[in-house]
Amino acid sequence: MAVKFARRMNHLRASEIRELLKVTERPEVISLAGGLPAPEFFPTEEMKAVTLKVLDEHGRQAMQYSTTEGHPPLRRWIAQRMNARLGTRVQAEEVLITSASQQGLDLTGKVFLDEGDEVLCESPTYLGAINAFRAYGPRFVEVPTDDEGMIIQELEKRLLACGRVKLVYVVPDSQNPTGRTWSLARRRAFMEVISLYRIPVIEDNPYSEVRFEGEGLPALKSTDELGLVVFLGTFSKIFSPGMRIGWVAAPEPVFEKYVLVKQGTDLHTSTLAQMQLAAYLEMFDLDANLVRVREAYRRRRDAMVRALEREMPPGVRFTRPTGGLFLWVELPQGLNAREVLAACLERDVAFVPGSSFFPNGGHENTLRLNYSNMPEERIEEGIRRLGAVVRELLGDHGNGRRGNPVLALAQVRGAA
Amino acid sequence: MAVKFARRMNHLRASEIRELLKVTERPEVISLAGGLPAPEFFPTEEMKAVTLKVLDEHGRQAMQYSTTEGHPPLRRWIAQRMNARLGTRVQAEEVLITSASQQGLDLTGKVFLDEGDEVLCESPTYLGAINAFRAYGPRFVEVPTDDEGMIIQELEKRLLACGRVKLVYVVPDSQNPTGRTWSLARRRAFMEVISLYRIPVIEDNPYSEVRFEGEGLPALKSTDELGLVVFLGTFSKIFSPGMRIGWVAAPEPVFEKYVLVKQGTDLHTSTLAQMQLAAYLEMFDLDANLVRVREAYRRRRDAMVRALEREMPPGVRFTRPTGGLFLWVELPQGLNAREVLAACLERDVAFVPGSSFFPNGGHENTLRLNYSNMPEERIEEGIRRLGAVVRELLGDHGNGRRGNPVLALAQVRGAA
Question: How far is residue A123's CA from residue A361's CA, in Å, rounded to a whole number?
Answer without folding.
Answer: 10
